[in-house]
Amino acid sequence: MVHDPQSTNPAPPDTDLELPGAQVLIAEDEPASLKLLARQLENAGYRVIPCIDGREALEKIQQQPVDLLIADWNMPEMDGVELCRNIRRLTLTGGLPFVYFILLTAESEQKKIVEGLEA
Predict the structure, then answer these.
(1) Which residue ranges make up each domain of the chain?
(2) Residues in CB range of 96: below 8 A, 6 or more apart
(3) What are 39's strand-pairing partners?
(4) Which residue has the higher pLDDT, 9 or 54?
(5) Fold (CATH) for 23-118
(6) pTM
């Protein structure tokens, strides 16, 4: 896309979707899913921190901030929505740097989708 310097609209940001070496934390209680996702990300050049639930993920991210957090919605101890709320609270109070968060779910109910987006 070519930006017209005389345009009043700002140029779109340059984005590089490939971040080789970026740290990704995965919170997933299903071992096969965790292993599969971790392997795919590692093969793409990402460094992966695996966690089996939201509580472990919250502890690890406070010790070592990451570039991306991928969490399952339904997990023991702390689910993905509660994890997202905790991460947001910590970033807003300066306890953590900004982190991209992807919430994985099979939920399709509108109420649940809204809950996830508002987390």
Answers:
(1) 23-118
(2) 61, 62, 65, 87, 90
(3) none
(4) 54
(5) Rossmann fold (3.40.50)
(6) 0.72
